[in-house]
Write a structure and sequence with these properties.
Layout: E1 3-12, E2 15-24, E3 27-35, E4 42-47, E5 50-56, H1 68-78, E6 86-93, H2 99-122
Parallel strand pairs: 3-6
Antiparallel strand pairs: 1-2, 2-3, 4-5, 4-6
Helix pairs in contact: 1-2
Length: 142
């Protein structure tokens, strides 16, 4: 099995947002990070059979991280090209963030989503289909 990796980045209003993609078979793992203190604030998951859902890790003062908002922007854009499961970890922190930087974050996530979509379309999954035992077989029979 080959793992393909690709990095994407965009910079606006004084900070950078990055998406590091790993194709694992037909599945996709994306690390969405940026700003002054990259971290894992949220985990967003999606599969063809289940709707997207996100988990928010605790932040400061009992609050929860909100980075899933950006992950969901990326996911919505790339969803037509997904052929397996998708996991997006996201964590962007800009010290003393300005209103202009907050507003730019959605545009940055959209830019990354579009770049990822194009890459996925140009590099389709080349994964081998798994082989399972049928109803009349088991590993104990071998």
């Amino acid at each position: 099995m080959s793992i393909k990796e690709q990095s994407f980045s965009v910079e606006m209003v004084g900070y950078e947002m990055k998406a590091e993609l790993k194709r694992i078979g037909s599945d996709i793992l994306i690390l969405l990070t940026g700003g002054d203190t990259p971290h894992i604030g949220t985990v967003t998951v999606f599969s063809e059979n289940d709707p997207a859902s996100s988990f928010r890790f605790p932040s400061h003062s009992g609050r929860k991280h909100k980075d899933d908002v950006l992950a969901e922007i990326v996911l919505k854009i790339i969803q037509p090209a997904l052929r397996g499961n998708c996991v997006i970890t996201s964590g962007i922190h800009v010290d003393h963030i300005t209103q202009e930087q907050i507003q730019a974050a959605s545009k940055m996530a959209s830019h990354l989503g579009t770049a990822i979509l194009h890459w996925l379309q140009e590099h389709p999954a080349e994964a081998k289909e798994p082989i399972y035992y049928n109803a009349n077989e088991s590993p104990l029979e071998k």
